[in-house]
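Per your request, structure below.
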C-alpha cells in the first residue's frame, strides 16, 4: 500500500481559505438576502449589515504544520497574514499551543487524529483564545469539542467559524450550529477535486520509485510500503 499524505493538501488548503473568506466576508448571509429579495432588509443597506474585516495584517495560528498546514501557510503568507504554528514534529513550528492561542486572530486546525489530539480544543482552549477569533477546522471534528465551540460562538469569544467535518460525517438539522449565521458548514468536501484522477496517475509512479529506493527505510513517503 502506497502512502501519499500530501495527495489532497492543496485542495484542503484552498477549502480552508474558502471557509475563512466566507465566514469573515458574510458571504452566505449576503447571498441569502439577494436570493430572498431582501437586499435592504429592515431598512438597512448591505454596507451596514455586512461589515467584515480584512485578513491582511492579522495573525493566523495553524495547529499542525504537515502537508496541509504548509500549503495553508504559503497561501496566507501571500495575502499578508502573519502565520505562526504549533506542531511537535516540525521544527519550523516554534509556538506551543498555549502561545498560539494567545496570539492568533485566526485559529485553523490541521492535525491528524491521535490519542494526543482528540479533543485538544475544548472549553479551556477556547477561553484562552483572543476575543473575536475566527475558528477553522478542515481536518477532523474529533479535534475540537463541538459543545464548547457552540458556547464560544454564543458568547462572542469566537466571532465566526468554518467547519468541513462533523462527527459521523453529518450534522442534525436542529443542531445549534445550523442556526448560527456566523458559521459556515460544509460536508467534508475539502479534498475532492476534478483533477484527482489525473494527479493519482502522476503520484503513483513517483511514490513507487521512492518506495523502491528506500530499501526498507522508514520515511514519511514510504511509511506503509
Amino acid at each position: 500500500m502506497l502512502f501519499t499524505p500530501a495527495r489532497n493538501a492543496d485542495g484542503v488548503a484552498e477549502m480552508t481559505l474558502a471557509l475563512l473568506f466566507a465566514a469573515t466576508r458574510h458571504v452566505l448571509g449576503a447571498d441569502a438576502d439577494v436570493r430572498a429579495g431582501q437586499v435592504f432588509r429592515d431598512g438597512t443597506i448591505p454596507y451596514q449589515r455586512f461589515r467584515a474585516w480584512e485578513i491582511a495584517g492579522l495573525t493566523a495560528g495553524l495547529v499542525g504544520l504537515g502537508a496541509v498546514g504548509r500549503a495553508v501557510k504559503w497561501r496566507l503568507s501571500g495575502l499578508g497574514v502573519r502565520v505562526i504554528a504549533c506542531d511537535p514534529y516540525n521544527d519550523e513550528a516554534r509556538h506551543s499551543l498555549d502561545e498560539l492561542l494567545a496570539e492568533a486572530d485566526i485559529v485553523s486546525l490541521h492535525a491528524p487524529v491521535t490519542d494526543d489530539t482528540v479533543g485538544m480544543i475544548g472549553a479551556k482552549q477556547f477561553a484562552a483564545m483572543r476575543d473575536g477569533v475566527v475558528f477553522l477546522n478542515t481536518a477532523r471534528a474529533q479535534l475540537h469539542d463541538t459543545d464548547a465551540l457552540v458556547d464560544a460562538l454564543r458568547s462572542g469569544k469566537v466571532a465566526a467559524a468554518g467547519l468541513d467535518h462533523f462527527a459521523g460525517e453529518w450534522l442534525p438539522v436542529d443542531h445549534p450550529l445550523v442556526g448560527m449565521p456566523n458559521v459556515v458548514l460544509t460536508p467534508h468536501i475539502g479534498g475532492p477535486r476534478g483533477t484527482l484522477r489525473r494527479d493519482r496517475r502522476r503520484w503513483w509512479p513517483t511514490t513507487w520509485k521512492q518506495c523502491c529506493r528506500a530499501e526498507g527505510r522508514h520515511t514519511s513517503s514510504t511509511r506503509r510500503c
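Residues 217-225 have pLDDT under 50 and may be disordered.

Regards,
D.
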